[in-house]
Hints:
alpha/beta; 6-stranded mixed beta sheet; 5-stranded parallel beta sheet; 10 helices; 13 strands
Amino acid sequence: MKLRVDLLPHGSYSDTVLVIDVLRATTTAVTYLERGAEALLLTASPDIALGLKWQPGLTDEAGDPLRDDRYLLGGERGGLAIPGFDFGNSPVEAAQQNFTGKTVIMNTTNGTGAAHIAAQSGSRVLLASLTNAHAAARRAKALALEEIAIVCAGTDERVGLEDVYAAGVIAEYLLALGELSVDDGARIALTLRRSAGNPLEALSSSVHGQTLERLGLGEDVRYAAQVSESTVVPVLSDLQDVEGALRFVAG
Length: 251
């Protein structure tokens, strides 16, 4: 079995893919499902997400579009909530809500795009974070036939220390589960994991972590630094019924 780590999304995935955007999309995705969401729809653009917010062709007595109550929208640009969305991309905010019976539509700067790249070729796509690191590793090991690819979303097409660190945590656990041949990306992630201190130090010292701190979102960084607090693993569903969106469910 091969273990591959892409420091940025590259595509050409033949088997099982773990997508990581630890600050914050995949951490938040796990939290939505923990808090009762039936599914997640990761859209290719904010416009697709906003279009799903309304019931097609239906209006109220004043002529305004009718809201589709099945859906809630969560997402960000530049770390801040997208206008017209119900929530930002905050796992702390998500942890305080009840999403039972709802589908959460997500669009973020980096993480949702990385998931779309992975889904173009990967036979199985999972969302991973530090909070579900061990559960995601076990699930990937059970599903994979030839290769596990860990894909770091990065930030604005640049490598993110926080994602590579999280990839190292997951890679380390995968190696504990059985023998794997590793590529150079995996070696880099493992080296960073072993040299960068504890998870909170790694995430807080990253450029993205510092940006979130300046935006007053430091609690999200601290939440995302928790390791293996969750057993929920978002898995790309066999049912893909919304154009421009990827449906993930709790695996």
